[in-house]
Amino acid sequence: MSTLRRGDEGPLVIKLQEKLGVEAIGKFGPKTEAALKEWQAANGLQADGIAGPFTLSKLGIEALPQAAPAPVAAPVAAPIVNTSGFKLDKLKGHVPDAVIAQIPDTAARFNITTPLRLAHFLAQCGHESGGWKAVRENLNYSAKGLMGIFKKYFPTVTLANAYQRQPEMIANKVYANRMGNGPENSGDGYKYRGRGYIQLTGKDNYKKFDATVPEDITNNPDLVATKYPLASAAFFFNSNGLWKICDQGATPAVVTAVTKRVNGGTIGLSDRVKHFSEYYNLLK
Predict the structure, then answer these.
(1) Looking at the whole model, is its pTM more than 0.85?
(2) Run of H or E residues at 246
(3) pLDDT per residue as tens digits for the range 34-75
(4) Going by C-beta distance under 8 Å and a sequence separation of 6 or more, which residues neighbour residue 77?
(5) Helix 252-263 and helix 269-283: axis angle, to 10°?
(6) What residues contact residue 7 under an 8 Å CB cut-off, 6+ apart?
(7) Burial class (CB in 10 A: 0-12, 13-18, 19+), 278
(8) What is the C-alpha to C-alpha distance for residues 186 and 10, in angstroms, rounded to an integer?
(9) C-alpha triplet 160, 163, 169: angle, nearest 5°
């Protein structure tokens, strides 16, 4: 699913800039972000400066077809290390200290056994969380936004107006009766909304993650945001077989393959490649 934010580059960013009337340089910087926020506010959307699928659709922008990825080179064996032996001091100033502090325990729990795996993992988490900032899903939508993004659940203006700008009510409605959640009045939708650097969502997924840590995550789900934002992301990598892709090497083609599994596309690929290279050169 396509999402554009500050730091992204490429032809889709050029399309966005052309629609917003800013210089189409192909790099999403502060001027593009400011113009996007102004457009979102004027059109009844959440003015967060991030162009998600609904914003892009409203602007009349369709995702560009993806070129076939280059053939992946034969895997190059990376040295397996004791997780306590990572050169984590090298990451200081490049990754927040709070994230670095979570790495040893996370690596031990979820098979992050090489510098190659760790570099791929950190590059994806940093980008998906907007630079290590987002650990909780933002559901503060306007009525217009609800009717666009969640039209199935908000087919009328009257219904959308009753829920707008009420994140708890919105989550309880749109996440009801799926992913292991109960009906809307159970409160499960909001209780098990997205948290972590790669957002864990739904009661079933919280239960599965619960089995990997000592605390009672099912009854204390906010621990995913406060204590385990990195571990929950590693749980996603481990559960979905991403380490096998990471192990294929340190090429842009491998970063592309990992990105497609995490993001569903290649939005923000240049930023992910840049940070992967940065982290891998520090860690190896």
Answers:
(1) no
(2) helix 242-246
(3) 888 888 777 767 788 888 777 777 777 765 444 444 444 444
(4) none
(5) 120
(6) 28, 127, 131, 268, 271
(7) middle
(8) 43
(9) 140
Which residue in this structure is represented by tokens 């204590």?
227
212 vs 109: CA distance, rounded Å = 8
The closest alpha carbon to 129, from 139, 138, 119, 117, belongs to 138
SS3 4: strand
b/e code 53-65 from CB counts within 10 Å (16+ = b): ebbbebbebeeee
**Exposure class string for 231-260: b at 16+ Cβ within 10 A, else e:** bbbbbbbbeeebbebbbbbbbbebbbbbbe
Angstrom distance (rounded) from CA 119 to CA 200: 21
- Measuring CA to CA, which residue among 134, 139, 136 is closest to residue 224? 136
The Cα 107–Cα 105 span in angstroms is 6
Q: Are 157 and 147 in contact (CB under 8 A)?
A: yes
C-alpha dihedral, 26 to 30 to 36 to 37, nearest 10°: 170
